[in-house]
Write a structure and sequence with these properties.
This protein is mainly beta. It is about 15% helix and about 40% strand. The longest helix has 13 residues, at about 250-260. Mean pLDDT is about 90; it is low at about 1-20.
Length: about 290
Amino acid sequence: MALCSSVIVFLMFSSLCLATAQFDGVFQPYWAPDHFSFEGDTVNMKLDNFSGAGFSSKSKYMFGRVNMQIKLVEGDSAGTVTAFYMSSEGPKHHEFDFEFLGNTTGEPYVVQTNVYVNGVGNREQRLNLWFDPTKDFHSYSILWNQRQVVFLVDDTPIRVHTNLEHKGIPYPKDQAMGVYSSIWNADDWATQGGRVKTDWSHAPFVASYRGFEINGCECSVANSDADNAKRCANVGGWWDHPMLSELNVHQSHQLIWVRANHMIYDYCSDTDRFPSVPMECEHHRH
C-alpha cells in the first residue's frame, strides 16, 4: 500500500493449516520460530532453558485498537514474562506495554503496564488480576487515538494515558507502531523483585493465543512517519470519534474500581524513584 488506510484484520483460525497460513500472513516469528506450535485456532509459544520466543506484525499501525486473547503460563511460572505490546523503532521510540509477570503456584499473576514516549519509559503501573489468567483465555487490548491510550482487560479499562500536550507534555502520535508478543526468562527482576528464580524443571512454559484483532490505520514502510501521521490523523477513522476522546462514566467507574482494589504499584506515587512528581501525574485524572 502506498498510503495508510483504515483496515480491519480479524484472524479466526478454524484448522491447523488455516491457522498457520493466516498467522503467517499477518504476523511473523522474529525469535525462535521452532518454539511455536498450532492447535486449531490457538497459537502456542514456549519458553524453555534454551530460548524464549516472539512474534511481530508484518505491518505497522497508527491509531486504532489491538486485541489478543491470551491464556498465560499455568502452574509455577515464577521468573517468566509474557509480553503483549506495541512499539515503534529507534532511540526516540514510543511503546505501550502489557507485561505479565509469572509467580509461584497459587500466587497471583502481576500485570505491569508501561508507556514510552520519545524513548523514555519509567511509567510502570502494576496490578493483580481479579481472575486466574491461566485457566482460560482473556482479552487484552490497547486503544490508541489522538486523545488517549487505554489499556483494557476483558474490556475493562485498567490504565489511561491522556494527551496533555497543552500542558507541554509530549504525547505519542507521530510514529507508526508494530504489534508484538514474546515470552522470556527475566528471573533477575520479574517475580518478587528477583528473589524467586525460574524453576526449569517445570519447563517448557507455554503461553497460548487466539482471537487476534487489529482495527486501525495501517501504514506502509514506504512512507515517512510524518506522512503516515498526517494521513492517519485526517482519515476520519472510527478511533477519532468524539465518544472515544475520554472514558465514559461507566468506564471511569470501572477504572476507579480497578485502581482501588487491584493496583499494587503506581510510579506516580513512588517518591523514592521520583522525589518530584512526574509532570503527567500532576495532571492525569486517573
